[in-house]
């Protein structure tokens, strides 16, 4: 602005112009407002979630004399005499003498010095120097001829730059001549030197085979035509595609995107973090090449920023990414696709607690474009919506190659124990592993570790070491023989005698992947195993490396946790074994059965995807539970009906809405008091039909010395809810700021 109504004395000069284009579009700014309201989050936390980490501001404190410098004591006067403020206070105070520190603290208390936070943003782009020839070919030839005798290196560089006609970095030019040769050429005015933005491409140097659209099968064609009709009409619809694994959903996504791009619009594809494997990325890069940006957590901050910048600068029109890619700053969206829509990773479990599915639908409404939700095992919430016509249901019943679904066998582990088999492998599993090994076929073994502890226990008195700060058993880590708390990081050595009864029978209990690997080696001498769990995949790219090795046939067995259940597509896998299928069935979470069914169906889908038929063997202690029997029957619909009945009886989503309030404090009495007061307030201000449960202690009642209580609100229609919750947060704001109190409101809880 050239002028302002604000008095000139109150205006401050502009220090620096940070962005030429605003990083967030008007649509995203508006979206941030509504997410803030719906999730009761701070506005700034929503904006942060929308931006790449590299763009976040850093805070630096600077200090100003609040009154005349003369009022400061002599010690301080000299520091403020020349400059009116100290720019980097934190640095200054670190280096200051004791006297200065004391004077400064006094001055701040008296208001003679004012501490102000100063936001600094660094340009997240990375720049580098590039060189290029600025001569015509004829001129260059003359100069090269002259240089050849006196300065052959300069001649070589010039020759290369002239023939390539592109900009190059000093590093790229090293084979031709040194930096000195380059500078000499610049000085002679023969080549240019400029600063250019470096593109940190995570897939640099990788070649992706190009792939053309396949001719769709009739069932696929039908699904695609329903989608393209909506694309052509320029209206919003949400489609739910339920299609068994290998039914050709991804091919439909690709062709729908193709259609959208032809209309000059853009596409967002969300994939669960863990299945953003090279195999998946490759399919999109192969079809759309350099038009694709990829966003996931294995990229460095800089790479993420550069990929994001390509979207903002309209250099790409497709983005494939994990949850937060739903905020890709496109301005002409034509479709949003969410693969494996039932996945828990689409819900952010920290503020802002948004679900990518509902954000996607809001954005698609704005742009009048479709959302495609795809899954072999849709979430109950989505499937129920499709049944009621809120979403359009599309179904693919068969695999593309007409392969039968793999045969599933259930093994009752209680029977194994009765017949004297105390090992973690049933006789059936052992026999089948031997068979596959002999045939040179591959095996996937899933250890479902969620809800399955790896603790040590005294066999005499039952004592289990607990974390002194959290109410949870310590986890045994074999590699460094320690016990660790997975919540607070507390670590101690493994006791050799029980602290309760002094018995020496205190030992490892439960099963970890390392333990299974050991047992496998004991049972089968020459079995080669690739283990995939948090320990073996911590390093960047290791997940990918292990999968590639397994795909090349470098091991007989791929053994792992949940992370192996998705995305694998290797023709030689003919056996999938599941150890402890029911371990998460007993979690205190109403979605436990749904998660069990989804995981088992997913992993079963890894077997026999190509010519060879596959087989699945599930070891369980609850072979009669419908979440396991329906996996055997490959019957989603039957599972859905049974689970819906249970939800209805229990009064859970999708029949009711839930909101959870989590309260924590280092003082137990405080937590109970606050939670009780909140519950009473809600009871008095909400409708009679709304039920409020609690306060009750949380499933893990203490973490990091903080006591945790919770309240659950269950309702069908509750127009006063948001207002009441806002009121609650408001009334505790100062307590939260002043004390240890923490209140979390989750308006759409996913993990209980
Ligand atoms: P989903 O995403 O449902 O698991 P995909 O799209 O990955 O299924 O398809 C499974 C396999 O079948 C892939 O290898 C894919 O290339 C192939 N495929 C998909 N559609 C066709 C088609 N119309 N014709 C031939 N092969 C296809
Ligand atoms: Zn004991
Ligand atoms: Zn702990």
Automatic annotation (TrEMBL):
<dbReference type="GO" id="GO:0043138">
    <property type="term" value="F:3'-5' DNA helicase activity"/>
</dbReference>
<dbReference type="InterPro" id="IPR041236">
    <property type="entry name" value="PriA_C"/>
</dbReference>
<feature type="binding site">
    <location>
        <position position="467"/>
    </location>
    <ligand>
        <name>Zn(2+) 2</name>
    </ligand>
</feature>
<feature type="binding site">
    <location>
        <position position="485"/>
    </location>
    <ligand>
        <name>Zn(2+) 2</name>
    </ligand>
</feature>
<feature type="binding site">
    <location>
        <position position="501"/>
    </location>
    <ligand>
        <name>Zn(2+) 1</name>
    </ligand>
</feature>
<comment type="subunit">
    <text>Component of the replication restart primosome.</text>
</comment>
<dbReference type="GO" id="GO:0006310">
    <property type="term" value="P:DNA recombination"/>
</dbReference>
<keyword id="KW-0862">Zinc</keyword>
<feature type="binding site">
    <location>
        <position position="498"/>
    </location>
    <ligand>
        <name>Zn(2+) 1</name>
    </ligand>
</feature>
<dbReference type="InterPro" id="IPR042115">
    <property type="entry name" value="PriA_3primeBD_sf"/>
</dbReference>
<dbReference type="GO" id="GO:0005524">
    <property type="term" value="F:ATP binding"/>
</dbReference>
<feature type="domain" description="Helicase C-terminal">
    <location>
        <begin position="493"/>
        <end position="650"/>
    </location>
</feature>
<dbReference type="InterPro" id="IPR027417">
    <property type="entry name" value="P-loop_NTPase"/>
</dbReference>
<keyword id="KW-0378">Hydrolase</keyword>
<dbReference type="GO" id="GO:0016887">
    <property type="term" value="F:ATP hydrolysis activity"/>
</dbReference>
<dbReference type="Pfam" id="PF18319">
    <property type="entry name" value="Zn_ribbon_PriA"/>
</dbReference>
<dbReference type="GO" id="GO:0006269">
    <property type="term" value="P:DNA replication, synthesis of primer"/>
</dbReference>
<keyword id="KW-0067">ATP-binding</keyword>
<feature type="binding site">
    <location>
        <position position="458"/>
    </location>
    <ligand>
        <name>Zn(2+) 1</name>
    </ligand>
</feature>
<dbReference type="InterPro" id="IPR001650">
    <property type="entry name" value="Helicase_C-like"/>
</dbReference>
<dbReference type="GO" id="GO:0006302">
    <property type="term" value="P:double-strand break repair"/>
</dbReference>
<dbReference type="GO" id="GO:0006270">
    <property type="term" value="P:DNA replication initiation"/>
</dbReference>
<feature type="binding site">
    <location>
        <position position="461"/>
    </location>
    <ligand>
        <name>Zn(2+) 1</name>
    </ligand>
</feature>
<comment type="similarity">
    <text>Belongs to the helicase family. PriA subfamily.</text>
</comment>
<keyword id="KW-0413">Isomerase</keyword>
<keyword id="KW-0238">DNA-binding</keyword>
<keyword id="KW-0547">Nucleotide-binding</keyword>
<keyword id="KW-0479">Metal-binding</keyword>
<keyword id="KW-0347">Helicase</keyword>
<feature type="binding site">
    <location>
        <position position="488"/>
    </location>
    <ligand>
        <name>Zn(2+) 2</name>
    </ligand>
</feature>
<comment type="function">
    <text>Initiates the restart of stalled replication forks, which reloads the replicative helicase on sites other than the origin of replication. Recognizes and binds to abandoned replication forks and remodels them to uncover a helicase loading site. Promotes assembly of the primosome at these replication forks.</text>
</comment>
<dbReference type="InterPro" id="IPR011545">
    <property type="entry name" value="DEAD/DEAH_box_helicase_dom"/>
</dbReference>
<dbReference type="Pfam" id="PF00270">
    <property type="entry name" value="DEAD"/>
</dbReference>
<feature type="domain" description="Helicase ATP-binding">
    <location>
        <begin position="230"/>
        <end position="396"/>
    </location>
</feature>
<dbReference type="GO" id="GO:0008270">
    <property type="term" value="F:zinc ion binding"/>
</dbReference>
<dbReference type="InterPro" id="IPR041222">
    <property type="entry name" value="PriA_3primeBD"/>
</dbReference>
<dbReference type="InterPro" id="IPR014001">
    <property type="entry name" value="Helicase_ATP-bd"/>
</dbReference>
<dbReference type="Pfam" id="PF17764">
    <property type="entry name" value="PriA_3primeBD"/>
</dbReference>
<keyword id="KW-0639">Primosome</keyword>
<dbReference type="GO" id="GO:0003677">
    <property type="term" value="F:DNA binding"/>
</dbReference>
<keyword id="KW-0235">DNA replication</keyword>
<dbReference type="GO" id="GO:1990077">
    <property type="term" value="C:primosome complex"/>
</dbReference>
